[in-house]
Amino acid sequence: MIDIRVDIEGGFDLLIANGDFVSNESTRQHQTLLLLCEKGELREFPTRGIGIQGWIADEVTGDFNSTVKREYEADGMKVLSIKGSITNLQVEAVYE
Q1: Is the model's pLDDT at 96 over the cut of 80?
Q2: Distance of CA 42 to CAs 4, 31, 33, 58, Å?
Q3: Interior angle at CA 48, CA 23 and CA 14, nearest 5
């Protein structure tokens, strides 16, 4: 998926080059943002988000991998595989 890019490592600022927004393939960016955001943090889609910090702190119970799969699919991705756990997650998913 092509979208505008944000600086995930630097505070989520919009990336700008030559006076314009940077846009390119952003599937990994979307996956990362879904992992990081708690439900309610995405104004346009308040029911989306995984909130991985709560999972790491054991504040959330359930099956982490199935939650990731459900959230990615709700965002329009086709999940091809999920392996690992919270600390070593490997996801292969693409937008259809």
Answers
A1: yes
A2: 16, 13, 10, 22
A3: 25
Contact between residue 17 and residue 23 where contact means Cβ atoms under 8 Å apart: no
pLDDT, tens digit, 9 for 90 and up, residues 15-65: 999 999 999 999 999 999 999 999 999 999 999 999 999 998 887 778 999
pLDDT of residue 12: 85
* DSSP-assigned states of every residue in the chain: -EEE-EEGGGTSEEPEETTEE-EEE-HHHHHHHHHHPPTT-STT-TT----HHHHHTT-S-S-HHHHHHHHHHHTTEEEEEEES-GGG-EEEEEE-
With CA atoms as reference, report the closest residue to 1 among 22, 26, 21. Answer: 26
Q: What pTM value is reported for the model?
A: 0.85
In the chain, domain spans: 27-95
